[in-house]
Specification:
Number of helices: 11
CATH architecture of the largest domain: 3-Layer(aba) Sandwich
Distance between the termini: 39 Å
Shape: globular
Number of strands: 10
CATH class of the largest domain: Alpha Beta
Strand order of the largest sheet: 5-2-6-1-10-7
Helix content: 25-40%
Radius of gyration: 19 Å
CATH superfamily of the largest domain: LigB-like
Strand content: 15-25%
Structural class: alpha/beta
Order of helices and strands: HHEHEEHHEHEHEHHHHEEEE
CATH topology of the largest domain: Protocatechuate 4,5-dioxygenase, Chain B
């Protein structure tokens, strides 16, 4: 019996088999090579067009990948998978989802055929004790994942899974859930939050769509204050973003693009370095601000 077959069989056991199932998952985790803490990334993904362009932001993604040892697997928390409840993709071969419209056919032709990892998905389910994590076999990789990961690992040779954002959870609960994933960092798993810390599409200046660096005053104020809190390791006001004033309210009209940053920050160990890159605004109301922890 292969390890995969054993995991599948163990998962069907009732109560008495729970310990066997847990031991199997622990064996999978233990079977991964121990490493120093893998870095954690928050990537401002911006427009899907970044998937096929070669601009300063894409160069930032490529450069940061050179600073990271090749991971054994990748876990992405993307702004573009919101669910009621928390899910992780658990299929062998996740599909490339083109979850957008109005872009050139060249973008729709992009495929990112990285393998999935049902074993890692099941391990994540077992690691998280604060809430139920459900295994998903329908989603795949949305553009919040593949449009940036393809620049980090263009050969699509690193197993990748996604974790959804439960829209019913409070920000503090997302932060607490993320902390439960920290053990994966010592097993070579690269955890990536993909979104944008300032993201207000209704306020985008279309005439400045290709003007890198142009930001409305409120967007600049929010971004600068967020970076101040990030660099000071002061996560409390970032978790309590809904009570940080008008600029934050304008920058985060809905939380799905912001919360992946909260997941990344929750994984920062005490005294662990944080490096900001791609720190520029686009179209007045978006920022590409990204960072690497560790």
């Amino acid at each position: 019996m292969t390890r995969k077959q054993f995991l599948a069989a163990a998962a069907t056991l009732p109560l008495a088999g729970a310990a066997v199932k847990l031991n199997a998952i622990n064996k999978f985790i233990d079977g991964l090579n121990s490493t120093n803490n893998m870095p954690v990334l928050f990537l401002g993904h911006g427009s899907p067009m970044n998937a096929i362009e070669d601009n300063e932001f894409v160069q930032g993604f490529k450069n940061v990948s050179k600073e990271i040892e090749k991971p054994t697997a990748i876990l992405v928390i993307s702004a573009h998978w919101e669910t009621k409840g928390t899910f992780v993709t658990a299929m062998e071969n996740p599909t490339t989802i083109h979850d957008f419209g109005g872009f050139p056919q060249e973008l729709f032709d992009v495929q990112y055929p990285a393998p999935g990892s049902p074993e890692l998905a099941t391990a994540v389910k077992q690691l998280v004790s604060s809430k139920d994590v459900h295994l998903d076999d329908k989603w795949g990789l949305d553009h919040g994942a593949w449009s940036v990961v393809k620049h980090l690992y263009p050969n699509a040779d690193v197993p990748i899974i996604q974790m959804s954002i439960d829209y019913s959870m409070a920000p503090a609960d997302h932060y607490a859930l993320a902390k439960e994933l920290s053990a994966l960092r010592k097993k070579g798993v690269l955890i990536i939050g993909s979104g944008n810390n300032v993201h207000n599409l209704r306020m985008v200046s279309w005439k400045h769509l290709n003007t890198v660096g142009f930001a409305f005053d409120w967007a600049n104020e929010a971004n600068e204050k967020m970076k101040e809190y990030i660099l000071d390791r002061n996560h409390k006001p970032l978790i309590d973003f809904q009570n940080q004033g008008t600029a934050f309210q304008m920058a985060i009209p809905t939380p799905e693009h912001y919360l992946p940053m909260i997941y990344a920050l929750a994984l920062q160990d005490k005294n662990e370095d944080l490096q900001i890159f791609n720190d520029a605004a686009v179209a007045g109301a978006l920022t590409m601000t990204s960072f690497k922890i560790g």
